[in-house]
């Protein structure tokens, strides 16, 4: 297994994994409005514009040429996507992807924390990674999330 930064030509495949995993594990907790908002957020045109501007960064986990998971940050230290293919759940892929972001953040002297607005499905995953809630669950534009933070050492 290896963690790589995908090139622009891989982003469409990356977003297909995100959407597939979202539909199975996240969408059941969301309203129709929330599902539509997320679909718009991960649309290729929306993401590629942010990617080109350097507003969003991706890392992928590859196992034998198979895309198994993806993490994305808005800026350097706000996780906006963390998705792992169903066949690879509970194998440390989310942790490996998160540790990659953690190392990038630690290499910057002025970053002291990593934030995420966790979906209901992923709250326990983030707790296991060392995040803690900073507020109660909220809903904005149909998107349910719990604001969370991870403090860097």
Order of helices and strands: EHHHEEEHEHEEE
CATH-defined fold name: Aminopeptidase
The largest pleated sheet is described as: 8 strands, mixed
Which range best describes the helical content: under 10%, 10-25%, 25-40%, 40-55%, 55-70% or over 70%?
25-40%
EC number: 2.3.1.-
Keywords: Acyltransferase, Transferase
Protein name: GNAT family N-acetyltransferase
Organism: Clostridium moutaii
Which terms would index this structure?
153 residues; alpha+beta; Aminopeptidase; 5 helices; 37% helix; globular
Descriptive report:
- The chain is α+β, with helices and mostly antiparallel strands and 153 residues long.
- It has one domain (2-151): Aminopeptidase (3-Layer(aba) Sandwich), CATH 3.40.630.
- 37% of the residues lie in helices and 31% in strands.
- It contains five helices and eight strands, in the order βαααβββαβαβββ.
- Strands 1, 2, 3, 4, 5, 6, 7 and 8 form an eight-stranded mixed β-sheet that branches.
- Strand 4 (78-84), helix 4 (93-106) and strand 5 form a beta-alpha-beta unit.
- The longest helix has 16 residues, at 11-26.
- The mean pLDDT is 93.
- GO terms for molecular function: acyltransferase activity.
């Amino acid at each position: 297994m290896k963690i790589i930064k995908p090139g622009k030509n891989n982003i469409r495949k990356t977003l297909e994994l995100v959407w597939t995993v979202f539909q199975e594990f996240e969408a059941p907790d969301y309203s129709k409005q929330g599902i539509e908002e997320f679909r718009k957020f991960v649309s290729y045109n929306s993401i590629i514009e942010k990617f080109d501007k350097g507003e969003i960064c991706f890392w992928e986990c590859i196992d034998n040429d198979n895309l198994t998971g993806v993490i994305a940050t808005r800026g350097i230290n706000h996780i906006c996507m963390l998705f792992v293919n169903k066949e690879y759940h509970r194998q440390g892929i989310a942790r490996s992807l998160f540790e990659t972001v953690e190392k990038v953040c630690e290499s910057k002297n002025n970053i002291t924390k990593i934030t995420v607005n966790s979906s209901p499905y992923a709250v326990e995953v983030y707790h296991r990674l060392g995040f803690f809630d900073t507020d109660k669950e909220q809903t904005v534009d149909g998107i349910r999330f719990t604001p969370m933070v991870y403090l860097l050492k």
